[in-house]
Amino acid sequence: MTRRDPDALFAARTSKKLPFDFVLDELADLGPWTRPMFGCTAVYVEEKIVFVLRDKNDQDTGVWIATTKEHHASLRLQLPNMRSIKVFGVGETGWQVLAADSDDFEESVLRACSLVLAGDPRLGKVPASRKKKRR
Question: Which domains does the chain have, with CATH numbers?
């Protein structure tokens, strides 16, 4: 029988490397913060979720953009490879993705970051749990 090292029980876990961490570097002036979300990393600026960083070795790996359907056409002019995520099923969703396997992935993500930095209202959503409740 092998004895376990009692100190190993209390050793700090090494955290997984944040995928696409250059996004946080780009948004640093806005003081972004992150939170785990469904095995991915949500990126917030103030109270708005702006991106989800996803590295799952599937078609939706990349940077998810929090937006709404009414903004898709205008955003596609600046982010031509942006598309609806597929993990939520068939059809257009509010969430869009800049897929990591795209030829212009980094360039597109940097462009999306510049839109957030400029305060573009098409990017970002206040999560339902953070919206102020009306009385």
Answer: 17-125 (3.90.1150)
